[in-house]
Amino acid sequence: MTETVGRRPAAPRSRRPLPALIFLTVLALAALGVWWSVLRADAALDREQAAACSSAEAAPPSLDPTTVTLRVFNATDRGGLAGTVAAELQARGFVVAEIANDSADVEVTGVGELRFGPVGAEAADYVGVFLPGSTERPDTRADDRVDLVIGPDFQALATPDEVSAALAPAASAEAAC
Fold first, then answer.
1. What distance in Å separates the CA atoms of residue 158 and residue 68, rounded to the nearest whole number?
2. Exposure of 38 by Cβ count < 10 A (0-12 exposed, 13-18 middle, 19+ buried)?
3. Cβ neighbours of residue 171 under 8 Å, at least 6 residues apart?
4. How far apart are CA 133 and CA 113, in angstroms?
5. What is the CA radius of gyration of the chain?
6. What is the pTM of this model?
């Protein structure tokens, strides 16, 4: 055996774990920050989509006017108003089945009201765009026709531009949904 004098065997170098731990901690925090951001963005997107879907459900439907049958009634003192309004609705494509004075025993206030049965609820929502401020009065009729009753505060139907503007958010919301 050979002995070395004066030399000690080399001790293994100890590595310092602190820089590696700091690096791994920073890396873990960065990954956590990225995931936090992704999850928040995903949650925000889900909220926007839910809001768009709920507004699409609440928005009036966009129907073809030729599929909507109306009866136009005048509940005012102004003679001929039902005929004038019916002619304008026919010019916009609606099918007008009857024009008369309102014979119901219900006092109509405001701009008017829409009377319809369960089958005609969607059509009534659509017609409501043409008569803004109207009230709805559901009844038990079995068909899909809608009664448009003109009230004492009626001035005019919504213009085609106003109708388009009212229906545009519904179309964009449905597209986002």
1. 17
2. exposed
3. 62
4. 9
5. 35
6. 0.64
